């Protein structure tokens, strides 16, 4: 069997480890052959592919980014499924392994169920918002980077007796904020799932100050502050019309300074959370998901996605994995609040 591999959507640590896991397992266990597809669906639509051997994936487990490149090209652009069939036929490609997040896998599921293409999914996103898996690879690395940043910002905040407002990624969910905030000892964590008033923020921040601490506020980029009807997005939209979130920390810091009298500074971590080498956890998870995807493709389990359930790698229906966002549950929010202030 000849299998094409693509990475689509936002990049994150662990993508290369998945590619390595797919190729090594497919070649060694099933004697399959592989082609790399450059820049996600664009490569499949524009016939930008290359043969990929074990030599091409050696040493990739600890390397960040993706050797295949990525893009947000929509699979129904540029000829859509018919063009994909042409390219797959020309190269003798029997199946595709699509590595991506919500948008990528939703598109892949549609291509399977409506167009009959042979596609397997692997869940990737630093946001950890896919409901079909306990964790996505990239998430552990992202919140580890955010935690280290909080640790560094705490020392300068303490030196100047300031409040630090630290913005992390996550789009419409607060998993990175929750985990990094708890790990970094934040005095307040603000997430899209749970509204928080300025009175409550003031109480948490001044409580920390009154105990002699430099208040640390971690806010997810999708948090909607009191008085606004929508997320802060002062960076416009990308070339696909997708809103570029970011700027909530810049909005909150002067508000917090105004209501508390504590000098406040904002730091937006941004794409730092996507870059660099994956953590050991993400390297292992990525590799295991990649090997499972190779098995699913070889067995013809089209429309399935490799998934983490507890500590086991299982397969789930790709369409069901993207039918809703995996938000932070109320129990986790209530659990964390005892640490605030």
TrEMBL record:
Pfam families: PFK (PF00365)
Protein's UniProt keywords contain Translocase: no
A single cellular component GO annotation: 6-phosphofructokinase complex
Catalysed conversion reaction: beta-D-fructose 6-phosphate + ATP = beta-D-fructose 1,6-bisphosphate + ADP + H(+)
Listed Gene3D superfamilies: 3.40.50.450, Phosphofructokinase domain
Amino acids binding substrate: 125-127, 162, 169-171, 221, 265, 271-274
Site entry: Important for substrate specificity: 103
Name recorded for this polypeptide: ATP-dependent 6-phosphofructokinase
Gene coding for it: pfkA
């Amino acid at each position: 069997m000849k299998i094409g591999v693509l990475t689509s959507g936002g990049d994150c640590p662990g993508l290369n480890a998945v590619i390595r896991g797919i190729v090594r397992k497919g070649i060694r266990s099933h004697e399959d052959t592989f082609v790399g597809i450059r820049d996600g669906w664009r490569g499949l639509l524009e016939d930008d592919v290359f043969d990929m051997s074990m030599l091409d994936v050696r040493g990739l487990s600890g390397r960040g980014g993706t050797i295949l490149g990525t893009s947000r090209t929509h699979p129904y652009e540029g000829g859509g499924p018919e063009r994909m069939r042409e390219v797959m036929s020309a190269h003798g490609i029997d199946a595709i392994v699509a590595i991506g997040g919500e948008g990528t896998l939703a598109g892949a599921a549609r291509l399977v169920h409506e167009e009959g293409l042979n596609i397997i999914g692997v869940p990737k996103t630093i946001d950890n918002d896919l409901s079909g898996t306990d964790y996505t690879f990239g998430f552990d690395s992202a919140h580890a980077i955010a935690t280290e940043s909080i640790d560094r910002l705490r020392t300068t905040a303490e030196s100047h007796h300031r409040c630090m407002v630290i913005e992390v990624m996550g789009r419409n969910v607060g998993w990175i904020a929750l985990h990094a905030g708890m790990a970094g000892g934040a005095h307040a964590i603000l997430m899209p799932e749970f509204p928080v008033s300025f009175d409550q923020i003031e109480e948490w921040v001044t409580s920390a100050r009154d105990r002699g601490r430099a208040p640390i506020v971690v806010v997810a980029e999708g948090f909607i502050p009191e008085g606004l009807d929508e997320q802060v997005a002062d960076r416009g939209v990308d070339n696909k019309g997708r809103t570029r979130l970011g700027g909530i920390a810049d909005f909150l810091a002067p508000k917090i300074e105004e209501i508390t009298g504590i000098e406040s500074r904002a730091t937006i971590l941004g794409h730092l959370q996507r870059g660099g080498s994956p953590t050991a956890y993400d390297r292992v998870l990525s590799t295991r998901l990649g090997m499972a995807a190779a098995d699913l493709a070889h067995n013809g389990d089209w429309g399935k996605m490799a998934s983490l359930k507890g500590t086991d790698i299982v397969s789930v229906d790709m369409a069901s994995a993207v039918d809703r966002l995996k938000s932070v549950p109320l129990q986790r929010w209530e659990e964390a609040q005892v640490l605030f202030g």
